[in-house]
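Newbie here. two chains, one complex. Structure please?
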Amino acid sequence: MQQALKLLALAWLGLLSSQPVWALGTTAGTDITNTATADYFIGVTPLTATSNTTTTTVDELLDVTVVGQDAGAQVTVGPGDTNQALTYQVTNTGNGTDSYSLTASNLAGDDFDATSIAIYLDDGDGVFNAADTLLDGSNDPVMNADDVITVFVVADIPAGLFDGDIANIDLRVDSNTATGAPGTVVVGGGDSGTDAVVGASGGADLATERFVVSNVVVSLLKSASIVDPFGGSDPVPGATITYSIDVTVTGAGTASGVVISDPIPVDTTYVSSSMTLGGVPLTDAVDGLDGADFGITAANTITVDMGDLSAGTQTITFDVTIN
Amino acid sequence: MKFLITISWTLLFMASVASVHAAADIRLKAVAEIEVSVVNDKGETEMKRVPAAKVVPGTEVIYTITVSNLGDQPADSVVVTDPIPENTTYVDRSAFGAGTEITYSVDGGTSYDLADKLKVKDATGKLRAATASDYTHIRWVLNFTLKPKDVAPVWFKARLN
């Protein structure tokens, strides 16, 4: 028996070096027959001879392919998000029916690990939702040759992460019949009593996708410059203070509905129509011309509604005089 | 006693006459094998042929047909024909038979021609040169008389789809 296994394994290795990879194969258990005939003459008499029939049974090849389905092999998440899904497609690229074990795991050497990882079998709509089945090891999917299934690797994202942080996640799929060196034989392990033979894939495959954190941050930097009535910069009564507020958005996403409010300091008086945004004057009234006003949305306060902002810096300025 | 001997002598004579007329006996033996690498006792790797009993897709199967003349009459115009087995593809240029002309069919065995003369219709209905994957049958025409006791092996390879 061992000798037979060795012979088959070695034959397989010889094949690998010379054969191209094939995706489909004749169904395991199929019988391939061959019968030859010969026509001949004895004198003037035509005669026919028929050979015996040879029968070759097709063994089962164990092969599988896993491919990530998300664009760019990544899904964008926010810190603290739960039930975030990576999508993979699994195909039985062998020629018989097989069941497969699925394992999902965090890779090391990246920025964070996703938590509470679970694998779900899609119900057919291609979207992760409550209709999908949790694969918990007791219900390994069984696939016929050429069957394709969609699975989701679902996990939670920790809090406290930074924009651009990455967690790489592997999905590994293994044939439950055998994995390992191509050509390894499981006698009788195939469909219809055939042998199962580990195919070129090793009976297993792996695909890596990642969660990428998008964390948008808005930060403000306020500065002041003073011009006094005498051409200097002393903070004396009558001096004008020009305040600049740099509004900076960092991160790959959009900060939506940004409103900057700044009450003017005590003992100062707002200089009318002194607000600017990016150097462009803003009106003090609530007039629909811009999203800014002084003292109307909030008393003694400049209010600037900047709307949705993507990465970059914009500067608001306004003047007050020291009473 | 004499009567019995006469009868048996007649029967023997008839049997020998019958054997002269039934002396044509061409046998065809078909064998399917695969080649495997074996490590021999000296640790060297060598190729060995074993029966192709169970085989995975992609394997090359060697089909050998041996024509034997077991009779005492010569056989002329011997033509051996073999369909390329279903679910296999003929391996280009793998056919051999000493003293034979080898032709192929691409139309299910209706007609045969030399490899470089065969044509098939492509998807648009245009004729193109046939390739190994188009062959449905293979034929060896012996250019010699198969005399009594002659053995003529012919063979080809087909890859399991």
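Moderator note: Residues 190 and 196 of chain A are 4 Å apart (CA to CA). Chain A has two domains: 61-213, 217-322. Thread marked as resolved.
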